[in-house]
């Protein structure tokens, strides 16, 4: 009886199309440095996605893919402040809260289009605001943690689109065809002076107050401002997230050269951290490097 449903008279259906995945090679490294007793930096690399795998079906061959999956990588660098245990705890708590809230969502956005672009950006901002509130609440409960806070620089690739959410002075850089571009703006008092013309970039680089944050996750302000932007990916793009322990001691040209010459994300990451340590390692040093490649076909399609 069931065989008659699939006789020669059944109309042909077009196959289901799935875009080729973005292949991501990611590696992270964090070092306490040469002068700090503890490491207040933390990082996260996580693979997020959805998949479809046919186990059994009565549909004709070609109607369903054997397997299809869509996945992106979430990368986070958080640099804690507040001194010793407080800073280390703040950066841990910030990342943990971002993950907890992402896992609580009933649906995950894994690809951006006109319908989901604004939704994804708002979700990212909301998660960081909630992490901010969680850190403030914890600092109120524990007096020794008062004033603790953290930077957060988080990047996801949603299909062939990068989404960057940023608070503080950790940084995101993009290397594309040998050219290095900084994607984030420091949320510091010195950067505010530069923006209004009261200080030059050269003066800012030498200023002793260059790391005084005016915007952080937690800290002393009740509100937090989250910068969210989207950048279309190109095949071969390489991304760096880093704490200021790296960007303070390794200039843009050295970053560009290390990322260009490396054959893998791990090689680039280890080289960059080593450069910061060789330059003095005054602070904790954290780097996450990801390289994006476009596959030519979708597996299981």
Task: Explain what the structure shows.
- The structure is a single chain.
- The strands form two sheets. Strands 2, 3, 4, 5, 6, 9 and 10 form a seven-stranded antiparallel sheet that branches. A five-stranded antiparallel sheet has the order 1-12-11-7-8.
- The protein has a single domain (21-51, 65-293), classed as Phosphatase 2c, domain 1 (4-Layer Sandwich).
- Strand 7 and strand 8 (179-182) form a beta hairpin.
- Helix content is 29%, strand content 29%.
- Mean pLDDT is 89; it is low at 1-8.
- The protein is α+β, with helices and mostly antiparallel strands.
- CATH superfamily grouping: PPM-type phosphatase domain
Low-confidence regions: 1-8
- CATH fold-type name: Phosphatase 2c, domain 1
Order of SSEs: EEEHHEEEEEHHEEEHHHE
The outline comes out as globular
Radius of gyration: 22 Å
Q: What is the count of structural domains?
A: 1
Main beta sheet strand tally, sense and closure: 7 strands, antiparallel
* Overall pLDDT score: 89
CATH class: Alpha Beta
> What is the chains' assembly state?
single chain
Helix- and strand-based class? alpha+beta
Tally of helical runs: 7
The total beta strand count reads 12
Helix content: 25-40%
């Amino acid at each position: 009886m069931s065989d008659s449903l699939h006789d020669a008279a059944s109309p042909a259906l077009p196959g289901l199309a799935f875009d080729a995945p973005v292949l991501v090679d990611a590696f992270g490294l964090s070092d306490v440095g040469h002068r700090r007793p503890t490491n207040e930096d933390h990082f996260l690399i996580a693979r997020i996605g959805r998949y479809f795998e046919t186990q059994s079906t009565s549909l004709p061959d070609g109607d369903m893919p054997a397997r299809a999956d869509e996945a992106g990588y979430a990368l986070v660098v958080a640099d804690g402040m507040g001194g010793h245990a407080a800073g280390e705890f703040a950066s841990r708590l910030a990342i943990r809260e971002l993950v907890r809230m992402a896992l609580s969502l009933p649906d995950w956005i894994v690809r951006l289009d006109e319908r989901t672009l604004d939704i994804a950006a708002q979700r990212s901002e909301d998660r960081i605001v909630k992490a901010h509130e969680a850190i403030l609440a914890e600092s109120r409960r524990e007096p020794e943690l008062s004033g603790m806070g953290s930077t957060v620089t988080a990047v996801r690739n949603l299909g062939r689109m990068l989404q960057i959410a940023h608070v503080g002075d950790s940084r995101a850089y993009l290397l594309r065809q040998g050219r290095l571009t900084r994607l984030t703006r420091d949320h510091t008092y010195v950067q505010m002076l530069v923006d209004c013309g009261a200080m030059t970039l050269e003066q800012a680089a030498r200023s002793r107050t260059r790391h005084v944050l005016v915007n952080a996750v937690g800290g002393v302000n009740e509100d937090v401002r989250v910068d969210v932007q989207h950048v279309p990916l190109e095949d071969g793009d390489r991304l760096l997230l880093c704490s200021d322990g790296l960007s303070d001691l390794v200039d843009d040209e050295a970053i560009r050269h290390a990322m260009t010459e490396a054959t893998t994300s791990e090689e680039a990451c280890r080289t960059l951290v080593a450069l910061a340590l060789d330059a003095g390692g005054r602070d904790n040093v954290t780097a996450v490097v990801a390289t994006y490649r476009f596959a030519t076909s979708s597996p299981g399609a």
